[in-house]
Amino acid sequence: MPPLPVPAQHFANFEACLEHLKAVQRTHMAGVAEGAVADGENRTRQKLVDGEGIMRVGSQAARYQARVGNQFRVTDRQKGVIVTTFSYEETALECQGGELTGSVTSGYMLPGMEQLPDATKAQ
Question: Fewer CB under 10 Å: which end of the chain, C or N?
Answer without folding.
Answer: C
